[in-house]
Design goal:
235 residues; alpha+beta; Dna Ligase, domain 1; D-amino Acid Aminotransferase, Chain A, domain 1; 7-stranded antiparallel sheet; 4-stranded antiparallel sheet; 8 helices; 11 strands; 28% strand; binds adenosine-5'-diphosphate; binds magnesium ion
Length: 235
């Protein structure tokens, strides 16, 4: 589904928050590598999709009313078979109901279980003065506690993307240290430029983040994505 159609569905449903499934679809179409992710409306569909994707899989709640999915028990990783998918499905639904009995639930996202990589985050927010700004950093504790992030104003040049990745304090982590694999920095720079173009072409996006992206020796994969739209009047 093209991004305009995804936005039209959200507008029709009067929501500003795209689901992870919608956000990943949009980013994939834009040319960013995302983990294979599909929406299942019920348990049987989740099991069918899991078989198609191949075990192990990850199940996550898909609801525009649940923003931090793992905080409420809405993410189950490393599901090895059909029985595990069944249990995870029930647990996710129970946890969601407990967190917000009124949550509008689309179903669950079934996705490939990505192998662990170096966690990075890449996002866009809007500055009142400068407009869309991209943020890049290392994921997890480094970004949350140390605020080790780099910012650039959209549109970015290839030079901006290169500097952005290298100016964070954690850059040595991306180069590989103590026997850890280096991260595919070229691919990260490419994703930054692709994201810059994507948000430049879509002023109706208010906020976007991929948290985390796993970076590997060869390639990257966004495992979580979030897009918030501007109010219709503003875009
Ligand atoms: P949240 O809404 O809580 O941010 P995420 O989708 O980021 O939920 O999932 C929480 C964590 O689970 C991620 O930070 C990542 O470590 C792990 N995870 C999520 N999706 C996958 C996946 N497809 N493969 C492997 N690990 C995943
Ligand atoms: Mg996340």
């Amino acid at each position: 589904m093209p991004f305009d159609a995804i936005v039209a569905v959200a507008r029709k449903e009067k929501r500003l928050m795209l689901t992870e499934v919608e956000a990943k679809q949009a980013l994939k179409e834009a040319g960013i590598d995302v983990v294979d992710t599909r929406l299942a409306k019920d348990k049987a569909e989740a099991q069918r999709i899991a078989r198609e994707i191949g075990y192990p899989v990850v199940l996550k709640i898909v609801s525009p009313d649940i923003i931090h999915k793992s905080d409420i028990g809405g993410v189950k990783v490393g599901l090895a078979d059909e029985a595990a998918v069944s249990t995870a499905f029930d647990e996710i639904m129970a946890a969601t109901k407990k967190a917000n009995a009124k949550a509008n639930v689309h179903g669950v996202a079934v996705q490939a279980m990505a192998k662990q990589g170096t966690e990075v985050i890449l996002g866009m927010s809007k500055d009142p003065q400068f407009g869309p700004v991209l943020m890049f950093g290392l994921g997890g504790v480094l970004v949350e506690v140390l605020k080790d992030v780099a910012f650039r104003i959209v549109p970015l040049t290839p030079r901006d993307a290169g500097q952005m990745v290298r100016e964070i304090k954690g850059y040595p982590v991306l180069e590989g240290y103590r026997g850890q694999d280096p991260a595919d920095v070229a691919r990260l720079e490419q994703a930054i430029l692709t994201l810059s173009e994507f948000v430049e072409g879509h002023p109706e996006i208010k906020e976007l983040d991929m948290n985390p992206i796993f970076a590997y020796k060869d390639g990257i994969a966004a495992v979580d994505a979030r897009i918030v739209l501007e109010d219709e009047a503003a875009s």
